[in-house]
Amino acid sequence: MPRELGLRYGANPHQRPARVFASGELPFTVRNGAPGYINLLDALNAWQLVRELRHATSLPAAASFKHVSPAGAAVAVPLGDALARSLSIDRVGLTPLATAYARARGADRVSSFGDLAAFSEAVDEPTARMLRREVSDGCIAPGYDPKALEILSKKKGGGYLVLEVDPAYAPGPTETRDLFGVTLEQRRNDRAIDASVLANVVTEAKELPDDAKRDLVVGLITLKYTQSNSVAFALDGQAIGVGAGQQSRIHCTRLAAEKAELWWLRQHARVLEMPFRAGLGRPERDNAIDGYLRSDLTEPEIAAWRGAFEREPARLSADERREWLSRIPPVSYVSDAFLPFRDNVDRAYAAGARYVAQPGGSARDAEVIAACDEHGMVMAFTGVRLFHH
Length: 389
What we know:
Blueprint lengths: L3 E3 L12 E3 L6 E5 L4 H21 L3 E6 L2 E7 L5 H6 L9 H11 L8 E5 L5 H8 L3 E6 L4 H8 L7 E5 L8 E6 L2 E6 L22 H15 L5 E6 L2 E7 L4 H17 L3 H4 L9 H12 L5 H8 L11 H8 L5 E5 L7 H8 L2 E6 L6 H11 L2 E4 L8
Parallel strand pairs: 6-7, 7-8, 13-14, 14-15
Antiparallel strand pairs: 1-2, 3-8, 4-5, 4-6, 9-10, 11-12, 11-13
Helix pairs in contact: 1-6, 3-4, 4-5, 7-12, 9-10, 12-13
């Protein structure tokens, strides 16, 4: 592997020259395409995420990264019929790794447009075929089956970025960053996240089912590589709503809750049976579903999504939305830092959250615990803050 690699440009096209280098060999090779600066920020963060998910759950993992935060992340839990239909996925011949990516990409399909995909295992042919039909800028994995590499090397007119990472590579204990001519150094965030961090349950309700423990761990590891402040909702081994990079935690929670609710609404029978116009592309279809499900659009925005259908489908009424949202299974809700006010718990509960994991340590911990007790939620204090910048 080389020690240095020239990049197309930095964070923006006018930021030239740009390169990536290491004191030893780089821990990855370029199998196809040419990386840019942001591509590598996404790829190296995403690889760490899926590697940790695999270690914590023993399941194949995948992530869909955009602008240095995951739009979705998941492990290989089988897809139900409604979810598969909402993703336009044929479950026949779906491998565990392809299942993980279908879930990761399907968490927020609008935000995943043009993603950097990451995989904990060597990419197989079914996963490559799934990637081929999506609008994606690149991928990173510890290997590629020959047919998978052939498929991906033809994507984007032969320019699709394919990175192969050394799975045995382990970085040193410290990391540095240059900013405005100043070098910052810190210990790398090598804190392992697994079910052991959920031992301190502080609410009256104490039972954390195994599925909830898995989902809380998936959510916490996702947040470890999400720009702070951040919260996430998780269900069935995947993040279903990620709120990243907000200055206020309640804004993170509102954003993530809205995404989680849209994820569930996309599985409503009326959405699954939408009369799309013939020949409509997947991105246009995703945008149309997003527009159809939102209640805050202007008239020009509504007119834009109407054009995606042969005939305009009837909108879900407020009562229909509430009834469908009330059916969502118990969701796990995680925060990268303490919850400062109970409003976060109240909003999360309204979006189906029944299990919570957060560091604790707020001056209002007692109020937050009381809010969980009022709702019958189970909350664990992890004692571990997971800020990421």
